[in-house]
Amino acid sequence: MNIKAVGIAASVLMASTCAFAQSSAVTGAVGGAATGAIVGGPVGAAVGGIVGGVAGAVLDPPPQQVVTYVQQAPAPAERVVVKEKVVIGQPLPSTVVVTPVPENPKYAYAIVNDERVIVEPSSRKVIQVIQ
């Protein structure tokens, strides 16, 4: 009977944590640590915090002025097409030329497969795909 009660309590705790994370947009290291602690205890909290922190850093959206600049930037005369799918958090192929955003050198952009993408210049990782 006690095992059943513990299982039910754990299920309720996990469901409420997931609902809280969705409703308040808990992201990054705190969300990862909380989820890791529920699943794997103290070790899970440490791993979840690291993974969540990395994911949170990758998904941090650029400022609106950067997005507006990239939306309005003229397209190059030659189309850039790559076989790989453009994925947020993954680097663009080295064959793709990225152009720095003049007002904010923390960001660069490229137009790949007819999609405008904002990237982190040093790693070439895609931060946002503009629709």
What is the average per-residue confidence, as pLDDT, rounded to a whole number?
Answer: 74
How much of the sequence is in beta strands?
5-15%
Count of all domains: 2
| Spatial order of strands in the largest sheet | 1-2-3-4
Structural category is alpha+beta
Distance between the termini: 53 Å
Task: Please give the count of helices.
Answer: 3
State the order of secondary-structure elements, H for helix, E for strand: HHHEEEE
Global geometry: globular
The count of DSSP E runs of length 2 or more, i.e. the number of strands, is 4
Which radius of gyration do the C-alpha atoms yield? 20 Å
- Summarize the amount of helix as a percent range: 40-55%
- The residue ranges in which pLDDT falls below 50 over 5 or more consecutive positions are 9-28
Biggest β-sheet strands, sense, barrel: 4 strands, antiparallel
How would you characterize the overall build of this protein?
The chain is an alpha+beta fold and 131 residues long. It folds into 2 domains: 2-58, no CATH class; 64-130, no CATH class. The chain has 3 helices and 4 strands; from the N terminus they run H-H-H-E-E-E-E. Helix 1 (2-24) packs across helix 2 (28-58). It starts with a helix and ends with a strand.
